[in-house]
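Below is how a single chain appears once it has passed through the pipeline. First comes the sequence as given, then the structure the pipeline wrote out for it. We keep one example in the README because the format questions we get most often are answered faster by looking than by reading.
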Amino acid sequence: MCLILLAWQAHPRFPVVLAANRDEFFARPAARASWWQTPPMLAGRDLSAGGTWLGVDRHGRFAVLTNYRDPARVRSDAPSRGALVADALASPRPVRSQLAELHRRAQAYNGFNLLFSDGAELAVYESVPDKGRVLGPGVYGLSNHLLDTPWPKVLAAKSALSAALVHLPDWQALLRLLRDESQAQDERLPATGLSLEWERLLSSAFIRAPGYGTRCSTILLIDADGRAQFHECTWDGNAALVGEVHEEFQCSEPVQRSGSSPL
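Resulting structure:
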């Protein structure tokens, strides 16, 4: 998952508004979102390593993952980061306890960022600086660096998300912002250890590159009564729609609106 946008307790009717793109090599096999038995969650599945990039359960708990882009840090013997989403949703513990556990085990993995909620609170764990915290209400953006790093794609997408909130419950405005292929100007590109050509290709919200690109776009809405909508659109290498998943369900407990503060 290479772009995550989240409005957390920032809308009077929808305390959870999540829009995310998963970018990956097209040769890596994956399954569309479905209900897992263990843990019981709605998620896509990476058929190469068995994990996932985004999941939500029937309690309104969710987790979503991005990799931290730094080719110099990548270790070939590290376990798959896709297990982290399933682990977060398999645990019955609140996010504050899970942050402590992530601190103990995160360095076994290549760099990652995990944004997750227990239904009452939202937290982020960033493995490269080895920091985790509980987040308050707001609009957040996460790509392949740290939360709210001002990369052009993150800034543009956060602004577009704020504008799209007025159109809820219509989720198509969220899908349109995820489909934005505008690339940043060279002077605004981050330097993450890739070539200039690849920095350009990866600077848009929706990516089309040789053998690589945005594989799916996911939108999750949970309203104040705990009613969840999940929409997933799957794309091929030509950016054509090749699959859709739409699910609606009632969370067992409504999403709470309790305030949060950094740890």
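Residues 256-263 have pLDDT under 50 and may be disordered.

See the next section for the split statistics.
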